[in-house]
Amino acid sequence: MQMSPTQSCRLHTPDDYVFVSNNDENDDYPSQIRNQCQSNDDNQFRRDHRLLSPCQCEVDTKNCSVEFGPFLHQTNSDSHQTGGVAADYSDENAWPDGVARESLHGVPQDLDSENDINEKERWLMTYFAVFDGHAGTGAALMAVNLLHHIIQRHLCDVREELMRREAVTGDPHRKSSWQCEPMVDLPSPYRDRSASIDVDSLVIGALETAFKEMDETIGRERTTYQIQGGCTALVAIVFNGKLYVANAGDSRAIINLKGKVIPMSEDFTPLHEQRRLQTLAYLKPELLHNEFCHLQFPKRVTQTDVGRSMLYRDADMTGWSVKTITEDDTKFPLVYGEGKRARLMATIGVTRGFGDHDLTVYDTSIRIKPFLIPLPQVKVYDLTAESHEPNDVLILGSDGLWDVMTNSQAQETVLQTLLQLDDSDQLRYMSAAFQLVLAARGIRQDEMWQLKDGSQASNDDITAFVVPLCACVRLSPSPRNDLTVSDNS
């Protein structure tokens, strides 16, 4: 989709959407688009790639409130559907809108005293997510509507474990078994080792399980609801005084802390995960269908190389060695290309995410899904370990942003915007996200989009969140701020 020179930028009210549009005829989306996709017609209706759907909820297995918060999304192409979710911007002094706050299942909803309110706030979850779709909108829409419910349910299990520990020790973080019976007389394999599992590991496990369940749900229901394509997933939650960032794909998250950039995710591309892909192909060569070679070479091997010596690297090698090229080595590489152009089986440029259950190599029946996994990498940031200023922020963005912008450039763009606005300005963080999108989108010149330096601007969807860490601290206070809890990132 080519953007017109008369592109309009429209900021909606908190009960609407924030997006950049190139025309006005489709600007007023009905409220029905918030509902979970249930038919192919609904998928067709939502196929406008400029739309980003945020919802806000908390960790309660019975209720889920849906509200709308600040974010920004832009596209210079037709190639992707990006979905984003922002949950519980509920500090009315820090955000342009307040959100009804619910609690984990089991905590009473009618708490009145200050101590009771603090008890309730302990179990609140703040949730943000970006879903970048490909080959169809179905997987992204499914994740937008369901993933926060799945995470919510699994975090309830974490809460139950923490409350059991606290009932016995008075400290939910203490690595002490909640069971009362003595264990010393049991043989070693039968002893309960839950005492050695810290809180971070419990939350990380909940996120990992939720991601896998989300992918299984898409696979199970993709024919009933015509869920096509796949999507990457970048999720950030604030829970129990910590920030957890779970990433499966090539979207990215960074933190600006007092001028320092802290990476909170890695890009999962075929090159980044080449070792895992090679290992799987080595263990299960039938997945290659005799069409691909799992070995890594420094160049594309051709028929003229047969019989010659060449450097190579196998799945179990960290270094390089020399081998004589055979006919099998001339098959197409399992991973081929450089940088963002690298592809798995000449088809897909990401190796983690949701969906893609029916994705095959072009003009073949070779399925690629066995090489793709939904398992996220989870990094942890302790919100209580540092004092946070108004300009200390979490930046989330789709790969359309990071294709043309480094971490430092994104940080600089955000800081330049924030420094120009008063700390009391309720739109300052939305303005920072807006500037990120504009910087990556560039300016239309000579029938193409260009950055300020004249290089090509992003031709992908661009989504950006800017989240103040000081507000996250207020939204999810740690039960015991004097405790030092291990970081499992």
TrEMBL record:
Ranges for domain PPM-type phosphatase: 104-469
Alphabetical list of CDD domains matching this protein: PP2Cc
Single GO MF descriptor: metal ion binding
Keywords assigned: Hydrolase, Metal-binding, Protein phosphatase
Pfam families, alphabetized: PP2C
GO cellular component: mitochondrion
Nucleus among keywords: no
InterPro entries tied to this protein: PP2C (IPR015655), PP2C_BS (IPR000222), PPM-type-like_dom_sf (IPR036457), PPM-type_phosphatase-like_dom (IPR001932)
Family indicated by similarity: Belongs to the PP2C family.
Protein name: PPM-type phosphatase domain-containing protein
